[in-house]
Amino acid sequence: MKPFDPRLLREVPATRAPIGLLAVAAAAQGAAAIALAFALARLVTDVVAQGNWERSALWALGAFVLRGVLGMFVDRMGAHTATAVSSALRRRVLSRWIEAPAEARPDAEEATTLAVQGAEAVEPYAARFLPALVAGVVVPVLAVGALVVVDPLSALIVVVTLPLLPLFAALIGRTTEDDTMGRWRALEQLAGHFGDVMRGLPTLVTYGRARRQVEVVRAVSDRHRMATMRTLRLAFLSSAALELLATISVAIVAVTVGLRLTHGSISLEVGLLAILLAPEAYWPIRRVGAEFHAAADGATAIDRLLAPTSCPAGTSRRAYGPNDDVPAGQEVEVVGVEYAYPGTETKVLDGVSLVATGPGLTVVTGPSGVGKTTLLDVIAGLRTPSNPPRISQVHYVTQRPFLPDGTLESALRLGAPTGRTTSDVWDALRRIGLWEFVAGLPDGLGTRIGDDGFGLSAGQRTRVALARALLSDAPVLLLDEPTAHLDGDAARTVVDVLRELAAKRRIIAVTHSPDLVAVSDEHVHLAPTFAELSS
Ligand SMILES: Nc1ncnc2c1ncn2[C@@H]1O[C@H](COP(=O)(O)OP(=O)(O)OP(=O)(O)O)[C@@H](O)[C@H]1O
């Protein structure tokens, strides 16, 4: 775990300006602290000597105000930098996750934990640790430089004892690294397991297995709690150790200054300056150590957010398709395509061909598990086969279509061109047989539906997704089991609409419905491969 990872600036350009400004402000704040020490020493000397202390008081006041203003600026700038850095990282990991082909995509739970908790953990790192790190590098150098000029003996004591602090901090940091990684693993397990349990809760309740999951979630949470407590214990211990070391070092400087003052070998001003400057050399490093524990999560998160596996660079969701050579019109050309899921040897698709030009209805049939959905995924560009097909722009209605949290209208307009009017939306609902249902809702198109279409039946969800396909202007429609979950009448309506639509667009529908097969123009039947038959 590095205190600062230069990849952050290199790979996320949006972080450069705020981090740069924050570093300059933190260094200026450190310089103001040194100036304040000089002004205070002069003020005390003038007061004791009953000299012209008003001028020194003004200098001290000026340095004090400057330090305060810069401190305030660093705090505000830190908060701004924290939001800028975490947003940039979150945007990066999510956009790369979405763009990556399914094969290169990291686990969804891991990506979610990184984008939510990971990016959030970066905030204290950027807001507090980075300014502390800059001060920890700049201020001790300035303080020691000033001491060399003012009182070389005190400078020598500081130079000898100062390296012990970063050395100590680095040793503690190495132990923290393992603990923090353990905590992240526990958190990911917790997030993954909790997500699985929530998704499977209806099934678990049906089989009377829900109670057992409480125990499992409790055990995983306990692991996370214990890992957190271990990190906290280490944080308190290491802060105390660094504090003790710094205090002893400052005490040594103070004792030597006191002895020399009593012997009259140094002036009061020099003695005071040495006593004021010495802590300025130690406290920034102590602060780096203290902030490090709060920021350790952030440093680990940055490491993971920038790791090539969580952000597969240079990949595109569609390795082919709507790029420069997208075929115009309604063209689909899949010839002898082969595909095996990552980590498996067996080819789900082995030499499958599907060629269609112009409008029409192609149905894909075959026994369950033969690879029909996989074929649609390949045509949609979601999976990357050995020999990429040529296809026009597609609109894909999957078996579990995604309906975002929001109004029914926004769910229907997802993927539709901006020119579609409200009457177009009602027309699509009427054609698909949902007009009466939506018109009967108190809020009509403004009705809110939950995440994943929560509040709609499976059949209603399918028809909302089909109405959305009608509203899109993609020349090729891919439909996975469009009549599943529908009763006889609703299924017939969908078959009629698809038949009508096939006069203008190319429809490729995976189906088990004989009615849809009966009205199709082309029929592709997938048979199990030899490997599938023998497995
Ligand atoms: N993500 C995956 N990783 C590994 N294997 C998978 C994955 N998804 C599907 N498969 C396997 O690929 C094969 C084809 O699955 P696919 O969903 O394409 O079948 P299908 O013909 O659409 O089935 P159904 O008619 O039941 O929907 C199945 O044996 C399935 O187990």
TrEMBL record:
For this UniProt record, the keywords arranged alphabetically read as follows: ATP-binding, Membrane, Nucleotide-binding, Transmembrane, Transmembrane helix
Please report the record's description of how this protein sits within the membrane: Multi-pass membrane protein
Give one GO biological process term. Answer: cysteine transport
User: Which residues span the membrane?
Assistant: 21-44, 56-74, 129-149, 155-173, 234-259
**Domain named ABC transporter: which ranges?**
332-533
Domain of life according to the entry: Bacteria
Q: Which CDD domains match?
A: ABC_6TM_AarD_CydD (cd18584)
Q: Name one GO molecular function term.
A: ATP hydrolysis activity
Compartments, as annotated in UniProt: Cell membrane
Pfam families, per the entry:
ABC_membrane, ABC_tran
Ranges of residues in domain ABC transmembrane type-1:
21-297
Recorded GO cellular component terms are: plasma membrane
Q: Which PANTHER family match?
A: ATP-BINDING CASSETTE SUB-FAMILY B, COMPONENT LINKED WITH THE ASSEMBLY OF CYTOCHROME' TRANSPORT TRANSMEMBRANE ATP-BINDING PROTEIN ABC TRANSPORTER CYDD-RELATED
**Entry protein name:** ABC transporter
The species is Knoellia subterranea KCTC 19937
Q: What is the lineage of its organism?
A: Bacteria, Bacillati, Actinomycetota, Actinomycetes, Micrococcales
